[in-house]
Amino acid sequence: SYFYLGLIYRLFNYIYSDIYFNTGEIEFARKSHEAFSKTDYIAHADYALLELAQSFYNNRDFSSCDSIITHLIKSQTILEDKNLCYLTYMLKSNLLINNKQYNEALALISQLEKTYGELFTAIDYIDLSTCYIAQNDTVNANKYAHKAAQIDSMEVWGLYLINKKMGKNAVALNFLEKEVDLQNKLIQNLSSQTVLSKVDEYKEQELI
After folding, report:
1. Is 193 a residue whose pLDDT tops 80?
2. N or C, which end of the chain is more exposed by having fewer CB within 10 Å?
């Protein structure tokens, strides 16, 4: 059925996203949304649309990403699903940060924290820290960078940025080296999984 086809396409979208394979990520996100759109599972279709927006963002097609976000904000599902609402507006804040609209991004993320604080991740707090750095508010920037690291000890990018901002270059370098090491390990793990060969196996079985 189209529902299970949508799930399969979503799986491939996740795989290609993890291995930074740009074209494949967008392709399967789009196919997942198209499949779910042919079912009665409206919420699944909206989540697939959000994943397509995220794929466009990951590949720096910010215009297409923003267009989808605008559409989702007007959808009925987002009014009924707080997780979808939170994720959609957080992606909107990423666009604002990318456009260096830090004041707008800070206002949006701060409001989201008040409303959906229980859903916040370490990455979200790094985004908050980034906005405060742009405003030269090192106290709050440091606060949220540490909060991110407390949630997930692997998320040290915020600590690198704030220490660099405060001129603590030796400390910043230490966190940067840790971040690079973590990214290298991630790439090595993904490579060892031979993900692409698994994708080919699925294709040969005509699941797609």
Report:
1. no
2. N
